[in-house]
Amino acid sequence: MRLPLSKFGLAAWTFLCCTFIATIIVVLIAAKTSQAQELNSKSNSSLNFKRCQIKHKAVEIDAECATLTRPEDPNQANGKTIDLFVVKLPSSSSTPQADAFTVIQGGPGGSSIDLAIGLRQALDFVREKRDVLIVDQRGTGRSNSLQCDLPEQDQLATSFDREQTVKLTQACLSKLKDNNLRFYTTSVAVQDLDAVRQAAGYEQLTIYGVSYGTRVAQHYLRRFPEYTRALIIDGVVDIGLNLAGAEIARRSQDAFDGMVKRCTETSSCFEQFGDIKQKFKQLRQRLITQPVELSIAHPLTGKEINHTVSESDLLAAVRFMPYATESTALLPMIIASAHAGDYTPLAAQGINLTESLGNEFATGMHNSVMCTEDAPFVDPRAAEQTVETYFGSDMLEGIAAVCQVWPRGAIDADFRAAFDSEKPILILSGETDPVTPPANGARAAAMFSNSKHLVIPSHGHGVIGRGCVPFLIRDFVIDANLKDVKSDCIERERAMPFFIDTTGPTP
């Protein structure tokens, strides 16, 4: 099994939650916050919040910003410090509740503040009663981001290369040498989150976490139950789940097989594209043997560029497009077009995915989490579980290569142990999620006695903006009562029909 060492290589293809998911969320309502509401703040806050604008891509919103200085090593109060960037989106109420709502991005390595910008319309429902408080987790976004330079396409290997992976990882370590990488893990991050809560003057937090962010949310609940009001965990990484083992390869294969099955059972898709699985296999082998040189308009800038279409582009599309029903609808067409010799759609997707993921998450923080919380606990038999997947064991080998040289960090002794809580927990899963499927949510629901698990039909990874889900969250957050969550409305959700050509699905 060959896995190109692309710009995903340093992270060993374990990235869970992409910030681009927020850009496809349905717009719910227009922003209504006035200047006076933006100036609303907690009188007992020790943070020096000031009016600011926060920006992600083309979207810029008004907020209040502050920084909180924290020791890099929690055990060395007088040692090196880092600044955490904190954002507050004030409530539209003149008398907001004493608790705040926060969001935690996935990755690991994504920016929670960028996620909040993408979710701004959905968060307006929450802001009717309470403030939204967000911090970029240490090592990400605006909080001492542990970014590493990524190689250009012409510097990449055409297949997985352990020696090159180690070399690139060592270069990343060299760039980040002034940081103690042992202290950029979840166990330390939850201490930061509670310090932010205290400094901002809130009694409790209601926490929304997505993907890896669900791991952070659950561990915060474990460490600080008295300061946790409620949890919403979306696309669940359940306690004890190992992300460095066979999980990603197996779930990616499941998602691909599900897409193929639905296309086969949809007459218009099957008649137009035929056996997509067979075309994928043939196309993959062709690209392994002979990558295709292409001149293409850059999908984001429009500038004419040269691009080598390789197995990397194909695997990126198959790996990440099933995250959302809209992009899944394009996948059979893209595979069939490339199989027939038109590589432009595949190249455009490969470029877009590579650049989006490479620019939007912090490789160093990602590696610190994976090499501390997952890689040391991989089942020795994990490779056997990947034999029938299109990724095979290359993910395992990639993570092992990174963690061979990356320092193992701080982790709480009970980090992977099951636990229960009386706090109300709303669990959300996408039916077709290709990385954190409903089975994960079911395991979390079995562990937490005061929980409710909703599976949103036809949707993938991260469902907060889907259909009526924002209204369900609004109702839950008001009183933190699971009985207020009336979920019949989710049954109306449907998958995006497959595109038959570039004009869209059949009428």
Strand content: 5-15%
CATH C-level name of the domain at 10-145 and 183-241 and 419-492:
Alpha Beta
Strand line-up of the largest beta sheet: 4-6-7-10-11
Mean pLDDT: 90
Estimated radius of gyration: 22 Å
CATH architecture name of the domain at 10-145 and 183-241 and 419-492: 3-Layer(aba) Sandwich
Poorly predicted ranges: 1-13, 18-43
Please report the number of helical segments: 17
What shape does the CA trace take? Answer: globular
Task: Write the element-wise H/E pattern from the N-terminal end onward.
Answer: HEEEEHHEHHEHEHHHEEHHHHHHEHEH
CATH homology superfamily of the domain at 10-145 and 183-241 and 419-492: Alpha/Beta hydrolase fold, catalytic domain
Question: Helicity range of the residues?
Answer: 25-40%
User: What structural class results from the helix and strand content?
Assistant: alpha/beta
Number of strands: 11
What's the N-to-C terminus distance?
A: 40 Å
CATH topology name of the domain at 10-145 and 183-241 and 419-492: Rossmann fold
Main β sheet profile: 5 strands, parallel
